[in-house]
Each structure stands twice: as C-alpha cells, then as structure tokens.
Amino acid sequence: MRSQSNPHVRFRSVGSRLGAQPRGFTLIELLTAIIIAAVLAAISIPMYTSFVRNQRVKTAAYDLGYALTLARGEAQKRNGSVVVSPDTNGWRFGWSVKTTGGTPITLLSHTAPTFLDSSNAAVSYLTITPTSGNDVTYNASGRLTSAVSSFKIASTQGSATQIPPRCITIDLSGLPRNTASTSGNCP
What we know:
Blueprint: H1 7-17, H2 27-78, E1 82-87, E2 90-99, E3 126-130, E4 136-138, E5 150-155, E6 166-170, E7 176-180
Antiparallel strand pairs: 1-2, 1-4, 3-5, 5-6, 6-7
C-alpha cells in the first residue's frame, strides 16, 4: 500500500522550516510601541525635572556647608579670623573664603592670590538666604563672631513638597549642619 501525501501540505511544512515566513513588525505593533514610549516619557519628564532641581538645591547646600567647614578649619589653623562672604550679586552667585583683612587665602606661594574656595552656582531659580547678617566670620577658636546662625537654600520653582528647602544651621561650636526642612522654614 502506497501512501499518498498532499504535495501542498508537504510544501508548506518545508517552507516554514526554511524560514519562508516574513519577519519584522507590523504597522500596528510599531505604533503600539511608539505610543507606549510616548506615555512613559510624558510620565517621567516632570519627575526628572523635579529630581534635577532637588539635586541642585542639595548641591548648593553641601557646597555652602563645605565652605563654612573649610573657613572654620582655616581660622583654627591660622589662629586668626576667616570670613565667608557672598558674591557682590548675592549668595546664590557664589561665595569666597578670605581673611578678615579681605585678602583671599592662598593655597601655596602663588604670585596671584588663589581663592581657597569660591563657588559660582548662578542658578536662576535658587535662593540662599541667611537668617541675619551677611558675612560669616570665624575666630581663631573656630566659633562664630557674627550673628548668622542659619541659611535657607530653596528653589523658587516647584512646591516645597516636591523640592524641600535645605537648612544649614551653625551650632555653638561653629560646625554647620545640613538638613532638609520639613516645614519649609529654617530655625
């Protein structure tokens, strides 16, 4: 007995094994993938913007805290007063560490004085506000001689819940402490 096979069935099975099926995406699959990518981008861009603004507030707070700690250490090391003063345009545009005579502290024996620390944040939506006074002066013992006791670093864009302000408070020993404000105000 001879078995008869359908030639079309055999051809289809051989063709599918040889890869005769078309490859690639259909138009509907491609449009679905593009729509999903657009929805995910629309959701993530505002979160990313808030994240970047929050990081800039934190960076400015850490930089200012570092400058205050540096000034305190230099005052103790030099056994004299050291001042942290804002840029002529305000704290958000930067600050410098100088001796009380106004000369910048030099790192080595350079002919031109080098600022020991200066920052140029210049971020248009940041505010850096001292609670009182403007310059921060450390004496030889590393304690404050001026009345400034805290700084508030905040973003002018976004809400305080999205981008909480940072507070730098200076304790009695002269050490700055950097914390996030839960109420939106600094002590």
